[in-house]
Amino acid sequence: MSTDLQSLVEMGFPEDKSKLALSKSGNLANAIDWLGANADKDISELNTAEDAANDNPALEAGETARSMVCNECQKKFRGMSQAQFHAEKSGHTDFAESAEELAPLTEEEKTARLAELKEKLRTKRARQAEEEKIAQRRNNEINKKHTRETEDIKEDLQKKEQVKEAQKKRQEKIDDKAAKERIKAKLEADKAARKAKADEEKAMRANPDAYNPGAPSTAAAGGAAAAAPAAKTGVNHAEARLRLQTSGGNVMKTFPAETTLFEVAHALEAESGVAATSFTSNFPKKTYDATDFGLTLKEAGLVPSAALIVK
């Protein structure tokens, strides 16, 4: 491998393109320029581009030195291949032969020229690296902006969901309060009705003649009552003994027969922390939900005792 070709390969240029560059340009310096100008072309494309440079190879050692001059920029070249390379690179077309002999570059000049070209190449690569860094920073800023916008959208959605959830809970509390007020009103109405009925029955027992004018007087009835055998007194249960089966175990409670299921649920929640929404009896099979909580234990058939499953 020639010294110039080895230098090009060590600089990172492909060997096949370096050989073609040396054949077209004639020396190391012009070869580097040619490689830079054709960096985007592959070797197959360069090999098929037959042009005048292939018919005018670089001057061989020992040939009579004759030069070419570009009439457009007055630059001088040692051979046709160099002039052709200049034409390809600059677009100049007006060339002429010159009798002036151009001395070949000395080793020191070659070294200096090579160092200059290496520096240009290093500067070019450094500039490209800086441009890539700038592009990367710009892409990072775009990605960060997109991420911030995405996070803002997510946060806004979360806030809206939190507002909706808070509104839902407030509405549930309002509905629950209204339901409790309706149940309480019904219980008060039922209690008032029961009290009125009890007062009426009490008044009838105190003065039965006022409610049944055609009936015999109390005195006459008293004699008949004395003659008749005493009627058997029915059993009147005034209390209900309940076994309440909860998720935390069984609770035994005794309530007056006139206690409502609502009051039972309230007492159970106050004592055990269990919020009852329904009571279920297995014998007979029946479920008492919130709409039945206005019933008394006596009206619900739970006197004198019952076992209820609390839900």
TrEMBL record:
List, for all copies, the residue spans of the domain called UBX. Answer: 247-310
Give the superkingdom in one word. Answer: Eukaryota
Q: Which GO terms describe its biological process?
A: negative regulation of proteasomal ubiquitin-dependent protein catabolic process; negative regulation of protein K48-linked deubiquitination; negative regulation of protein ubiquitination
For this UniProt record, the keywords arranged alphabetically read as follows: Coiled coil, Cytoplasm
Q: Which InterPro entries does its entry note?
A: UBA (IPR015940), UBA-like_sf (IPR009060), Ubiquitin-like_domsf (IPR029071), UBX_dom (IPR001012), Znf-C2H2_OTU1-like_C (IPR057766), Znf_C2H2_type (IPR013087)
Q: Which residues form the signal peptide?
A: none
Protein name in the entry = UBX domain-containing protein
Q: Which residues form a coiled coil?
A: none
- Which Gene3D superfamilies does the UniProt entry name for this protein? DNA helicase RuvA subunit, C-terminal domain, Phosphatidylinositol 3-kinase Catalytic Subunit, Chain A, domain 1
Record's keyword annotation contains Hydrolase = no
Subcellular compartments: Cytoplasm
One GO MF term on file is:
K48-linked polyubiquitin modification-dependent protein binding
Q: What do the Gene Ontology cellular component annotations say? A: cytoplasm; nucleus
Give start-end positions of Basic and acidic residues composition bias.
127-204
UniProt organism field: Cryoendolithus antarcticus
UniProt-listed Pfam families: UBA_7 (PF22562), UBX (PF00789), zf-C2H2_OTU1_C (PF24560)
Show the segment(s) annotated as Disordered: 121-220
